[in-house]
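Class prep. Write one:
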Amino acid sequence: MLRGRLPLSISAAAALTFACGVSVTAVLFAAISQLEYDKMSLSLQQRAGARVAAIEQGLDDAVEVLTTTNQLFAAVVPVTREQFHDFTTPLLQRHPFIQAFNFHRIVPHDQRAAFEAELRRIVPDYAMTEMRDGVVVPATTRASYLVVDYLVPLQGNRPAFGLNVSPNGVLARALEQAIISGQATASGLLALAQGPQQGFVIVYPVYRHGLPLQTVQQRRAALIGDTAAIVRAGELVQKILAGADLLGDPQLELSVYADAGADPRQLIFRHGQAPADEAGAWKALPRWLHFAYHSHYDRAFLSAGRPWHVRVVAHPRPFLADHIGSLFTLIAGLLFSLLTAAFVQSLTQRSRRVQLLVEQRTADLKRSNELLSADVRARQRTERALQDSEKRFRRLLALSSDWYWEQDANFCFTHITSGFTDKSNMPLERFIGMTRWENNAEMRNSRWGKQHIANLEAHLPFSNLEYAMKDRDGQLRWFSINGEPLFNELGEFRGYRGTGSEITERKLAEQQIQHIAHHDVLTGLPNRALLRDRLAQAMALSRRKNRALWVLLIDLDRFKFVNDSLGHKAGDLLLKTIATRLQASLRESDTVARLSGDEFVAILCEQADEVLSGAIVQRVMDAVAQPVLLDGKEFFVTCSIGVAVYDMSRYDAPGDVTLNGETQNLIEQADIAMYCAKKQGRNNIKFYTTAMNQATLERLRIETALRNALEREQFVLHYQPQLDLASGRIVGVEALLRWQHPDLGMVAPQRFIALAEDTGLIVPIGAWVMREACAQVKRWHAAGLDTLRLAVNLSARQFNEPNLVASIAEVLLETGLPPACLELELTESLFMHDVALAVSQLHDMKALGVQLSIDDFGTGYSSFAYLRTFPIDVLKIDRSFVGDVARDADDAAIVVSIIALAHNLKLRVVAEGVETAEQLDYLRQHGCDEAQGYYFSHPLPAHEVETLLSSTQAAA
């Protein structure tokens, strides 16, 4: 027990605790008070913002009302006084803050007398007046007057009727600003002729119909007056705020100014002014209680073409009403500080008592320490023994994995932990007392096994020894073993110990990764990398045994249709089905691989018992052509096959270094042959020939030259005249593209037009043709030649361009060619893919004013429904019908039917390919409108066409 009592005193810790608590309380009080003031400021901003937004919206509504009134003058010419009265009266009822609507008319001085006489029909004693110094006086003589002509309502606004407002500078500036901006503009505050109340006027110019208004000068020249709304300023704001229920807050004072600043002279509205005694009480509070509170809110904005200013002032409130939280924090903080200081004081007293007790016990412990010293020395001996044991344990722990094993000096197992049985599914009895190779015969005979036995006999450590064994269920399992030799204190070899792990899952994963790297994920067939390896091996075998080798490239026909109609899931199922059929149709020694997408490659090697023949390839095609059930629907899928035969005579030795490169050549040759098969209608087989490669090289050469032809200005246009059969006069020309290449010469259109369509080059080439042909025909027009019509062909690729209509309009605008002189020729195949889109595109073209014709009518997908739906002007009879029209009854019947059909549909008929007088006579007899062909003229360069037109005009 303690000897004596501790003196009572306040500790430094308790005093410091109390001081810290008071400081923290003061900081919290100040911070919370600031948050409360921030909340008050935010509340003021929100309430003020709502009122500003309401006022701004109200002014915009007034502008919109005037804009609506002004649209009357844009829609009706002229607007009568009764129409103006009937239109504005409902607007006045809906918007009571508007004093009146009027129409200011500009009256020249020479029309003043007539204008006054007109207004006397309404007000018998009328004479034109104006305001001077706030008084209505007779109007002085001026060059022109801006007079209130229409005024609704007249009652209550009689002094303003017929008033000349042109001397009013405020109103004149507002009108000028409205002319410049093109929008309604409000004037500043001004005295109204109707009475002492101030207001402002919103004006909107009225222009003469049909005159250009793009520039300010043009608008001033076209000005005939303006529409105006006379607004009672104070009542406007009062109605806006009352309508939004924003006048009921007694804590706010709201002032509105018709200016950018708070100019008292521009004050138009004030509401909720605070009593003087409340404001004085607020100012009497100590400054430290004000903090950063903002008692007012100012906001300027633009509306009706002029600035407005709104000021919202918050009335003072008692401090306690908004600061309960901060006062509560102050009182609670002081109480907490006091209680915490008392608690610390009690802890200090207790610590002192404990310290005295410790000093008493220390002496007792000193005596006990001497007794413990003997125990410590005994513990040290024990710790050294434990350290040796721990060292052996750590070494064993470093080697441990799934199980631990030990062998004697003869490499026979003496101990294996139970983890081996759990992981390997093998009994321990199978291994105890036996060596590792006695349970694994492969180890004795393999090179890696013999090396491992040699390492054991040399007493060397080993790690990561991997081998496979079958468990009791016959399943193959993989193991990884680590071991180190054991020696006694004399260095004598005693055996081995180590750890083992079961790694079957890892090995299977490695095999799976290896399979994925060389096989297609979807079909499981070899991929491109494994295909090349297999093909290289097959080529080497073929050369070594002098046997034939074929490479088949198989491409599915219309596979995209399956994907588009049924989705990619059905497409994947189809690919897997085809892959299975290809494997089943060939021998196990043959290789089937997936090259990409819907392309497969098969490698066929000739065997001693079977010679390669076309029947094998046909068998593959027949297997693919079997019906496939996809989503409950039966599909028939065909394929196109290209075959490349390996030519062994090109190599001298089996080890030729070009072997790997030749694998790609064989695949490319099969690919070329496959595309030739597709060109001949799909579902076909083609063997590769050198002529195919030459055709491909020719296509590549043409394509390369074609890509630079437009840039190098190698294209030229020829024009074939079109004759009116009734008058014999040339009424139009068809623009035909020609390619003059420096090396290839004049390239025929059939050699490059289809290629340009495939590569997309037809789009820029077609744009060039359109622009050049329109410009040439416009030059002929300017030269005084006949007003010719120009026919230009559009390809399918051009027709599907989204900006086609815009580009045609741009060409017509740039060249100045009248749209009616341009005829666009379209083939029937353009409309078949998306009829709705074609109809929309054709109507957009027709809206430009151009003419539309169907080229080669009768050779494609002719449909009478399309002729009725499409906005077509011309049908062109294909030359295949015209050629034998004088000799073949069938062709003659078709031509007569087309002419009759076209005329019944109010369409013009043009016959192409007229080459003989008999053809011309037949067409003229049966009412064909126009014709073109070699009988009249071959396609000619522009200068020869000009000569022909000039001679024709001279003859006429």
